[in-house]
Amino acid sequence: MFELKVTSYFAAAHNLREFYGKCEKLHGHNWFVEVRVRVRDLDKIGIALDFGRLKIILGEILELIDHQYLNELPTFKTLNPSSENITKFIFDQLAPRVGEETGGRAGLYSVSVWESKNASVTYSSD
After folding, report:
1. Residues of the chain with pLDDT under 50
2. Which residues pair with 11 in a beta bridge?
3. What are the boundaries of each domain within the chain?
4. What pLDDT, in 10s, does the model give residues 41-77?
5. What is the chain's alpha carbon radius of gyration, rounded to the nearest angstrom?
6. Cα(109)–Cα(37) distance, rounded to whole angstroms?
7. CA–CA separation, 41 vs 38, rounded Å?
8. CB 13 within 8 A of CB 70
9. What is the third-level CATH fold of 2-124?
């Protein structure tokens, strides 16, 4: 089994509804994102998935939330824009794209999102 990893960043503002603490107020983060893809079989030239393509696809998904007020986006109008829900949103957007890109040879294994250098959430296919 091969596991590929790419990273990226996005910046966005949000507030947590019904949190009853500091994070209920409008604030922002510079999120760090790590994506892991697993594949058993390499393609005919010995590649699991081109890193460049994976970075482009991830970038297209992050563009949907980068420099946005997340609470105003359709997905987060009713779903609290917590780090957990943001991580799952990225996973759900990315998983089918990875499968399409590799003809089903590879699968998205996990997405991790750090809201600060010492606090992160991981969502995985396990």
Report:
1. none
2. 30
3. 2-124
4. 999 999 999 999 999 999 999 999 999 999 999 999 9
5. 15
6. 5
7. 10
8. yes
9. Tetrahydropterin Synthase; Chain A (3.30.479)
